[in-house]
Write a structure and sequence with these properties.
Shape: elongated
Strand content: 15-25%
Structural class: alpha/beta
Bound molecules: zinc ion
Helix content: 25-40%
CATH topology of the largest domain: Aminopeptidase
Largest sheet: 9 strands, mixed
CATH architecture of the largest domain: 3-Layer(aba) Sandwich
Radius of gyration: 24 Å
Order of helices and strands: HHEEEHEHHHEHEEHEEHEEHEHEH
Number of strands: 13
CATH superfamily of the largest domain: Zn peptidases
Distance between the termini: 18 Å
Length: about 425
């Protein structure tokens, strides 16, 4: 059996979205649900109730991630897992993460209502702290895949100095805690998410199959020139670090746009000029670069070009430079057989789909370390996200859920 968009109980999904929008609602029409806040716990608990009502076996893992399970006929077969997150940025939207939890819940509910047996068990997860508004981005899935040592976990604190472990210990989950061995027993992970861009909307296509999740690299660059009198210094004697930085900022954008079209995004969003005085040539300029590459080859190519651009500008302005990598996560390619399952799932649902790069990071990135990982995007109006204006049309919700449900069924039937 395969599902069409009309088979999805979209009123049920909309009423659940509306319910969750009321938990942590802000006066601006958004939602604030930081990990383990009363609002986050209430939203999680209410979703757990819906999971239980759907006949799923519900628990929390050792990190506070919410899990639900639907048994398969083969007890030895690996789990097909889907999910996202219920935490938000401050005054965030009502779909980012939430839809990725409610969509597989609706899919599994449809399987229950249609008495569909699958060979593999199906699972649902709501990861804690994806947005990093309290502790650290993608924390729930980072913990789940075993990326952090016990000491590193013990050191995680929020801005008030409260340790993650103490916050976790003070949570009263009204459900059993069942430690999950995330590294073993998984067959696949699929995450449905809003696109956070305009590509689907512009194409009029309701679903996007993610080909890769771009890996962010944050670089800090320092140009060192010489602070001199802004009036008295001749052109030829100037070593203007800000001018060098300005050339670089423009050149980086042009390079990413034209030489790596559709494969890289480069942004300079932070700049620190010294001495930052009107009548003094800038002696030192420090700026940060956020660059995201869709694949490892693109990353290597962009890095090389960044170096060329620095060197060229430094030479032309007579300044020195040095760079420091602040953060790096490798780009993650989604797994081919999951992309196929999603394309087939969309086709069986009668829904168009197109391939897309995910420019934002998601839990699916971490899950790729322990299992085959894939993502399905749905359009969000004007590409807006992390804002109260975030919106997904009901018909796109139904299309996305039908495609996801079919893909989950396909994967759950696989040998
Ligand atoms: Zn998200």
């Amino acid at each position: 059996m395969r599902f069409k968009a009309v088979d999805v109980n979209v009123d049920r999904v909309l009423s659940r979205l509306g319910h969750l929008a009321g938990i942590g609602a802000t006066s601006a029409g958004g939602v604030t649900r930081h990990t383990f806040s009363p609002e986050h716990l209430r939203a999680t608990q209410d979703v757990a109730v819906w999971m239980t009502e759907a006949g799923l076996e519900v628990s929390f893992d050792q990190y506070g991630n919410l899990l639900a399970n639907r048994a398969g006929s083969d007890p030895a077969a690996g789990l097909v897992l889907s999910g996202s997150h219920l935490d938000s940025v401050p005054n965030g939207g009502n779909y980012d993460g939430v839809l990725g939890v409610l969509a597989p819940l609706e899919a599994l509910t449809l399987f229950q209502e249609n008495n569909l047996a699958t060979r593999r068990p199906l699972g649902l997860v709501s990861f804690i702290e994806e947005e990093g508004a309290r502790f650290h981005g993608l924390l729930g899935s980072t913990l789940a895949v075993g990326q952090l040592s016990a000491n590193e976990i013990a050191d995680i604190r929020d801005a008030d100095g409260i340790r993650y472990l103490d916050a976790l210990a003070s949570c009263k989950f009204a459900l059993p805690s069942r430690p999950m061995d995330w590294a073993g027993g998984l067959h696949a992970f699929l995450e449905l998410h809003i696109e956070q861009g305009k590509r689907l909307e512009a194409a009029g296509i309701p679903t996007g199959v993610v080909t890769s999740i771009a890996g962010p690299t944050f670089l800090q660059v320092r140009f060192t020139g010489q602070a001199d009198h802004a009036g008295a210094t001749e052109w030829g004697d100037r070593r203007d670090s800000l001018l060098a930085a300005a050339q670089v900022i423009v050149a980086l954008r042009d390079m990413a746009m034209h030489e790596f079209e559709g494969r890289a995004h480069v942004t300079v969003g932070a700049l620190n000029v010294k001495p930052n005085v009107t009548n003094v040539i800038a002696g030192e300029t420090i700026f940060n670069i956020d660059f995201r590459a869709a694949d490892a080859d693109t990353r290597a190519g962009v890095l090389q070009r960044i170096e060329d651009i620095f060197a060229e500008s430094a030479t032309s302005q007579g300044v020195a430079y040095d760079t420091r990598e602040l953060h790096y996560a490798p780009p993650v390619e989604t797994t081919a057989h999951l992309r196929n399952a999603l394309v087939q799932g969309a086709t069986a649902a009668g829904v168009d789909c197109m391939p897309l790069v995910s420019w934002a990071a998601h839990d699916a990135m971490n899950m790729a370390q322990v299992t085959d990982s894939g993502m399905l995007f749905v359009p969000c109006r004007d590409g807006r996200s992390h804002t109260p204006e975030e919106f997904v049309a009901p018909e796109d919700i139904a299309s996305g859920i039908a495609a996801l449900a079919n893909a989950l069924l396909e994967l759950a039937e696989q040998a």
